[in-house]
Amino acid sequence: xxxxxxxxxxxxxxxxxxxxxxxxxxxxxxxxxxxxxxxxxxxxxxxxxxxxxxxxxxxxxxxxxxxxxxxxxxxxxxxxxxxxxxxxxxxxxxxxxxxxxxxxxxxxxxxxxxxxxxxxxxxxxxxxxxxxxxxxxxxxxxxxxxxxxxxxxxxxxxxxxxxxxxxxxxxxxxxxxxxxxxxxxxxxxxxxxxxxxxxxxxxxxxxxxxxxxxxxxxxxxxxxxxxxxxxxxxxxxxxxxxxxxxxxxxxxxxxxxxxxxxxxxxxxxxxxxx
Length: 274
Prior knowledge:
mainly alpha; single chain; Rossmann fold; 3 domains; two-stranded parallel sheet; DNA polymerase, domain 1; 40% helix; 5'-3' exonuclease domain-containing protein
């Protein structure tokens, strides 16, 4: 996915954002936030640091910030870019991110080739990007353990937001809504503002100490991995620079019990490089 993004946007600024360890302000506000999630399997935990190292090695600045989620960092970066009239592409499959879409922010899912613009969000969810938070608040988010209105799914949420436009509008007209879902809505009135708060991506995180230059660092592309050998495709003018860097960087990739001998071969094809 990361290689494809670089190929699609070779001259763009880029950053890779990960969740930091520990609780966030959402856990402080609601202790049951994400409490339904099982611990990450150890085999996945062991892969996190190598992934971070690989991303950094191939020119992706890594950002992690304690106390907030990766979504909040991304939301802040996208907001800052929009204020500068920059276009932003967010690579994600997370529906929550649809709340960030505007005329300058687009979501892409490189796994499904889906692209969500303002119209794309409306076509997919039935509501505008500025209504996504209210849409999610009404339904709840089982993945994050955030309750919504019982028995309210996408169709009902879209119906209410089409008629009343906002969550505040739905709450204001709660007495008019009949049936079981109307009763459930009225039971949820005290909770809904809190649920909305938990599902709102924070777009004003102070990133002054964690975000530097997001330009590509090496310009190299990892095109395959074969056993213990890495194969790169690089522009001719970068060959000598990369050749000099690889032995040092590879020796630091993972803590190993034995020294690793790193040999670098350069050629126009596999045979010449060996």
